[in-house]
Amino acid sequence: MTQNFDRRRHPVRPDLAASDYEGLADAGRFVEGEVFQVKADRLAMRPEPRQDRPIDTEALRGEWLTVYEQTPEGWAWGQLDTDGYVGWFSSDGLGPVTAATHRVRALRTYRYPAPDLKSVPLGLLSLGSKVTVTGEAETRGLAYALLSDGSAVVARHLVPLEDREEDWVRVAEELLGTPYLWGGRSSLGLDCSALVQLAAQTGGHDLPRDSDMQEAEAGEEIPHDDPAALERGDLLFWKGHVGIVAGPGKLLHANGHTMTVAFEPLEQAIERIAATEWGAITKARRLSAPEST
Asked: Name one GO molecular function term (predicted).
């Protein structure tokens, strides 16, 4: 078999592959995966089991990972359920599975050992993290959601999993000033495609992780030769980059030019990027209205 499998999307290696690929790929052995839940606030995923390799992406607390291998050195190799991304990550960041009920809608929220903002936080959850709410409590007039692990978060920072934002671009705008981080996928630091993925997710759009995947699969292709015809929420692609049309003549993107999530005049961005290795716009896409749940 000579088919090439994208390592980012297919759990296939020369020595090991998921059992679903038996008969489709050449591998030394095929294994059934075991499902875990991310218990770390953020879990870096890398192309190799080495701390000195740049991260490809991050899994967020509460997301599920199917693990196909764990090593004695503390590494695990598997696939993220949310967007199908495959990589290496620390086994220490994994825990048993619980069915999530809510996700974090605030840009970030502290997780406390008790429903009390004066207690020492256990961690900091980012936009898109998933939690299992088992109860509620109120302390000094502030409502908390009690979670399945015994911790608590501010209740108004959560929304039910099925909640949908009518204007998901507004969520991306809330991330203005967030530092640019290659491979980052949280409100503490993210890259261009993660900004698109996380914000669009709040509007009910499940997009792939990387810009080349989004360019091929997100919504439907639309003409891009007339910037004036673009609408809020349209996605513009360059080689290795994606930005969001936030309004007439306005681009919103996480970028290495400002090293932040920033607005940029669209015509200026087109001219500036054209003079770099990324060149001209390659495609524009428009997300369709998500199916109602």
From this structure: cysteine-type peptidase activity
Which DSSP string do the residues of 13-75 spell out, in sequence order?
A: -SS-EEGGGBTTB--S-EE--EEEEE-SSEEEEBSSS-TTSPPSEEEETT-EEEEEEE-TTSE
Q: Residue 17 is encoded by which pair of tokens?
A: 């592959």
Strand order in the sheet with 260-265: 220-222, 283-286, 235-238, 241-247, 250-255, 260-265
CA-based R_g, the chain, Å: 20
CA dist., res. 124 & res. 130, Å (int): 12
Q: In DSSP terms, which residues pair with 75 in a beta bridge? A: 90
What pLDDT, in 10s, does the model give residues 65-92?
999 999 999 999 999 999 999 999 999 9
Which range marks the domain in which residue 81 is found?
17-95
Tell me if 6 is assigned to some domain: no
> Which structure tokens are listed for 20?
């679903």
Task: Report residue 2's pLDDT band, with 50, 70 and 90 as the boundaries.
Answer: low
Q: Is 144 within 8 Å of 150 (Cβ atoms)?
A: no
Best CA proximity match to 108, nearest among 44, 178, 56, 46: 178
Q: What total of structural domains would you count in the chain?
A: 3
In this structure, are strands 133-139 and 220-222 parallel, antiparallel, or unpaired?
A: unpaired
